[in-house]
Design brief:
20% strand; alpha+beta; six-stranded antiparallel beta sheet; 251 residues; two-stranded antiparallel sheet; 2 domains; 8 strands
Length: 251
């Protein structure tokens, strides 16, 4: 790689490291950021000055924070996903009908990304928000998406990220994962108990485009004891997916 290109890549990486650290620290002073990323104060100051000028960082008193300009980019990226707009109203209805938290998830670079969340009144919080990045194997909705990837893509994800154990119930062996995904494909539904959070059950199914290609997955999540009728919840999830599939086909 030419020297100038290499320096440009390092500069970009450092700016991203600073932004990510600002988020992790929930705002920080210059010296705190420099210590956290292991760079001189002067270098970090130069990066922050550029980010401030472009609106990606704001300064409040002596502290720097991530700026709201990222919100515009995030919303733009979310709207480019085929299932996002057709799914919103249907997920609101699904949450209301089941009394749970309904959500839409897609995959990006081997990781599940939550695009939309609708929580019913009184539903138990399940730590989901738009933008969450989740290992696909840990939830029913993630498994519903993963089931329709090629075996090669699944193995690539496992090789890159492993199968991190979020709880004692998380799938942790590749053979178990492939067996589970085969069952999901056969049933058209995934039910995961406690794989992402202890005591939380999630039910998911795939969303496909007109060609049958997986574009997203939807489902519900809630405390295991709050599912009085699992079969009924599965029917609600499947019906919602069918409606979203039709809306995508006619959009």
């Amino acid at each position: 790689m030419p020297q100038n290109d290499e320096n440009a890549v390092k500069t970009t990486a450092r700016s991203l490291d600073i932004i990510e650290m600002l988020r992790e620290l929930n705002g920080a002073r210059l010296t705190e950021i420099a210590d956290a990323v292991g760079l001189p104060n002067s270098t970090v100051h130069n990066h922050l000055s550029t980010l401030l000028e472009r609106g990606y960082v704001v300064k409040q008193g002596h502290q720097y924070h991530v700026g709201l300009r990222f919100l515009d980019f995030g919303e733009y990226a979310r709207r480019t996903r085929e299932a996002y707009l057709p799914a919103q109203d249907e997920l609101d209805q699904l949450a209301a009908e089941t009394g749970q938290t309904a959500f839409l998830l897609t995959e990006e670079n081997g990781v599940g990304v939550v695009l939309y969340v609708s929580r019913a009144d009184g539903a138990v919080p399940v730590d989901l928000r738009p933008g969450n990045r989740l290992p696909l194997h840990t939830s029913g909705v993630g498994q519903a998406y993963m089931a329709y990837l090629s075996d090669g893509k699944i193995d690539e994800i496992v090789d890159r990220f492993g199968l991190p154990e979020r709880t004692e119930s998380t799938i942790s062996e590749p053979t178990e994962l492939h067996d589970t995904l085969a069952e999901v494909r056969e049933r058209g539904i995934a039910v995961e108990v406690g794989g992402r959070l202890p005591g939380v059950t999630s039910i998911g199914t795939a969303i496909k485009d007109e060609s049958g290609t997986i574009v997203a997955a939807i489902g519900i999540a809630g405390a295991g004891g709050s599912f009085d009728d699992v079969d009924g919840a599965i029917d609600h999830v499947k019906h919602t997916a069918n409606v979203i599939d039709l809306r995508i086909a006619h959009s």
